[in-house]
Amino acid sequence: MDEGEWLAERFEADRARLRAVAYRMLGSLAEADDAVQEAWLRVSRADTSDVANLDGWLTTVVARVCLNMLQARASRREQAWDARVPDPVVSSMDGGDPEQQALLADSVGLALLVVLERLGPAERLAFVLHDMFGVPFDEIGPIVGRSSAAARQLASRARRRVRGARTVPDADLGKQREVVDAFLAAARTGDFDALVAVLDPDVILHADGGVVRAGAPREVRGAAAVATNALRYAGRLAWFARPALVNGAAGLVVTVGERPFAVLGFTVTDGKIVEVDILADPVRLSQLDLAIHDD
Predict the structure, then answer these.
(1) What is the pLDDT of residues 230-248, one digit of tens each?
(2) Residue 294 placed within a domain
(3) pTM for this entry
(4) Distance of alpha carbon 174 from alpha carbon 73, whole angstroms
(5) Residue 245 forms beta bridges with which residues?
(6) Confidence of residue 77 (pLDDT cuts 50, 70, 90)
(7) What are the residues whose beta carbons fall under 8 Å from the beta carbon of 66, sequence distance 6 or more?
(8) Residue 112 Cα distances to 5, 51, 140, 247, angstroms
(9) 79, 96, 200, 247: most buried by Cβ count inside 10 Å?
(10) Range of the domain at 222
């Protein structure tokens, strides 16, 4: 086996982890795949003879690619990215395939990714690499063009924003499912009081309909407002909702006929829904694997 074949083999063995890094960095499954492919093109042309820690080096290559993509995204300003719901990882209630599980190995819920979307590119990189993958700050600093101390400060600021949001659902998936099922039942029957009963008073709803479905509110706060919004916009669509795992937590997929209409991720904390994240952009939905089966 020559050096090129050996490097390709090592890269393929690490592809799932590198894709997980890119997904956390970008919040987009398609862009994560693009970033990993671009990283391979760079790796395949590089001289690796002096690389002592290949896994760490591959991580930094992917991170640099992702940072460039985040910076380009910020400079274009072609979409209100602070209102963007990241791509969800959807699987059936039995847990999905190993590739999906690798993406979510650190229980990266949709609510956490929503918070990460609001970070600056350098902050996001520092937080993801250090807090999620254990990359030292002296390796993160050169990627963002800062000292290791400055990289530490970037991660610290990001960490405070993450801790200030309720992004971690209750551990009991069965309890989550009960709460989401109660929400769905209330939406189907138009029961406003029952909807409010399962919502935290300070619940937040984020909805991303893309350009095609831009009419609905992108952010709604408070139990009464979220319940009203659910009844106004869900209507008969609630009858087409099916249970699924959305980033490892209880969620719903709405499919009308053969056409995906929305994916709903829920964060259930202390038995109440504290966040609802809805992706209803038909363009992005068409690019996701939403093949689930009924329980």
Answers:
(1) 998 776 788 899 999 999 8
(2) no
(3) 0.88
(4) 38
(5) 91, 250
(6) low
(7) 21, 22, 25, 26, 35, 125
(8) 38, 33, 21, 10
(9) 247
(10) 173-285
